[in-house]
Specification:
The complex is a heterodimer of chains A (114) and B (113). By secondary structure, chain A is mostly beta strands. In chain A, strands 2, 4, 5, 6, 9, 10 and 11 form a seven-stranded mixed beta sheet that branches. Chain A has a four-stranded antiparallel beta sheet with strand order 1-3-8-7, with no helix packed on it. Chain A starts with a strand and ends with a strand. In chain B, the strands form three sheets. In chain B, strands 2, 5, 6, 10, 11 and 12 form a six-stranded mixed beta sheet that branches. Classes of the chains: A mainly beta (114), B mainly beta (113). At the A-B interface, strand 4 and strand 5 of A face strand 5, strand 6 and strand 10 of B.
């Protein structure tokens, strides 16, 4: 089954404790992206990757890091989480590197930073 | 920069009534438009898309959207809603050569029996 898998689905952590949210897709997609969803703001892009070793900032990259060492994986790293990073995070992938409108989403990771 | 405005944050309707969810975008160049649906506690799923050709596009579950270039709109409609349509709906846009999809704020559709 074609899917995007995120882990963990739920996480409560404390300020400053480094964490990683993993994302893996089994569709051989070149394009992958991370979004955060906040009430009233819709989805905002954090980082995206057009291929292995190619990543770029989205609209809200501050406080986040990513890496793309393998085509299928695109982890999101919070080096020193803060309460304003409490949010619902989605990983998505697309077959198209340019005009990636047809996105496949994971089920989301709800993060709470105390 | 592209932007998308969904004019209603919440839309309550009765079952079997018609519904319209409004979406306007800002880009003046060639655009590609999408509606995504998010059911409770799930990720987003593509509902329908406009890439080119006919300005009226349809989904498999009875929704349709019409691309209106002059009004820069892509409103979503369904003539008769069902309880199972309860979800949040997101309009999104990308343009030629762009590397990202820009989402609207979302519209929560609530169906009352």
């Amino acid at each position: 089954e074609a899917q995007v898998t995120q882990n963990p689905r739920y996480l409560i952590t404390v300020t400053g404790k480094k964490l990683t949210v993993t994302c893996s897709q089994n569709m051989n997609h070149e394009y992958m992206s991370w979004y955060r969803q906040d009430p009233g703001l819709g989805l905002r892009q954090i980082y995206y990757s057009m291929n292995v070793e190619v990543t770029d900032k989205g609209d809200v990259p501050e406080g986040y890091k990513v890496s793309r060492k393998e085509k299928r994986n695109f982890p999101l790293i919070l080096e020193s989480p803060s309460p304003n990073q409490t949010s619902l995070y989605f990983c998505a992938s697309s077959l198209h590197r340019v005009q990636p409108g047809e996105l496949f989403f994971g089920e989301g990771s709800r993060l709470t930073v105390l | 920069a592209q932007s998308v405005t969904q004019l209603d944050s919440q839309v309550p309707v009765f079952e079997e009534a018609p519904v319209e969810l409004r979406c306007n975008y800002s880009s003046s160049v060639s655009v590609y438009l999408f509606w995504y649906v998010q059911y409770p506690n799930q990720g987003l799923q593509l509902l329908l898309k406009y890439l080119s050709g006919s300005t009226l596009v349809e989904s498999i579950n009875g929704f349709e959207a019409e691309f209106n270039k002059s009004q820069t709109s892509f409103h979503l409609r369904k003539p008769s809603v069902h309880i199972s349509d309860t979800a949040e709906y997101f309009c999104a846009v990308t343009q030629g050569g762009a590397q990202k999809l820009v989402f609207g704020q979302g519209t929560r559709l609530t169906i009352n029996p």
